[in-house]
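# nightly structure sweep
# worker-07 picked up a monomer target from the shared queue
# config: single-sequence mode, recycle default, output format = structure tokens
# input follows
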Amino acid sequence: MLKRLLASAAAAILTAAVVIGQIKPIKASALLFTPNATVQSEAAILMNTDLNEIVYEKNADMKEMPGSLVHIMTAVIVLEECADISGTKIAAKEEMFDVFDQDEYPEDLRKASIEAGESLTVEDLLYAMMLTSSIEAAYMLCDKFGDGSQDAFAEKMNAKAEALGMTNTRFLNGTGLYSARQLTTARDLMTLLSYAMTVPRFEAIACANTYTPAVAATYEKKDVWSWQHANLMVDESSGYYCHGVRGIKTANTQEGGRGIACKGSRDGNNYLLICMNSPMQDNEGNNHFYHLEDAQNILEWAFVHLTVQEIMDANTMLGELTVRNAEDDDFVLVKPVEGFSCIWCDTTDVKSVQKIYNWPMEIDAPVAAGDKVGTVTLKLSGETLADIDVVAASDVKRSFWKYNLSEIPGFFKSKYLRNTWVLGIVLSVLYIGGCIFFAFRYHEERKKRAAARAGHLKNQSR
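# output follows
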């Protein structure tokens, strides 16, 4: 049994390491659209998970108090560390209720009627935490997997956040209890949520509509332990119901406002949405679920108006280039090396995308089909959507005679010819100088020999 647990744990750690290596922090996208309704939440971000593209954001890098949205990270840590969530049990301790009684904002706490001494599985507690924001369940899980220390569990959360690239996040606890220093951003939470959706069992638990633990009857709590997801968007009887939406997590805090993280799927399009710090009350002081209204409006807008649109076809001929010294045709057609598609809002005309061509007026033969000749840049409202390589669409052979004739003028202008001329002149000067030098010596030698001969004849005449 122990060997199996160790093997399972090792496999989970290895899988997590591989997935973390593949998950990248969510970056700001250049192509963003705006919903056709006012978003009351102070921060929001919407990502299409089919293409991993951010399509809408509002103050996505503003630091906010996440409240019980931290339970997403709590669930990730627990699921990755617990090899048997249905077989591992945790008993509620009396001391945790003292912590709740001393909390600065007791009205923020959501309880699932778990009492001291009652024992539930890790699986049961994960459902209670994710569906109802159960403070008891969150505390029990953090206590168990923090080895009895809430601070130690928070350290694990921060280590995971750092590994995921959540650079604007700091966790102080995994329960969601109020702390002004526990801050994150909508963008960081989207990075976390994207990763959490890859963790086995997370989505099944976080997106369940209802759950009743098997021991509910044993404790005579079948009614109070029939937990419903707090996201009213999944309740068909609610005025906030939105077809295709799945639960995940809600948050309600006096200081941090209301928040929600949810999944939306319709007609083959899949989204993850996070809204943070929406007002708790309307102008008249009445409780109002602005976070649900925002989520409903944003997702309905996305389902209706956003589609994958082809901006550039890979087979589109973008123009022609003049080819010097070509054997036949003196031009070649050019096309993008690949097409470009992205999430697009139907209220924006595709023709508004600007295509900026970057290639020379002429190129030299030979040219092979597929040779890069330049790039094309796609822009919308000054923002770059993509830089795509442009290639030749066909082969162009080089003409032997045209090429060699074209090289003749260049030969006379080449540095090699200039260097040859300089070398020739230098050698000629040296040669002429040598000739003059040796001619002068020869002349002097003749004069000496003539003088010597004249002296010799003179001596003989005597």
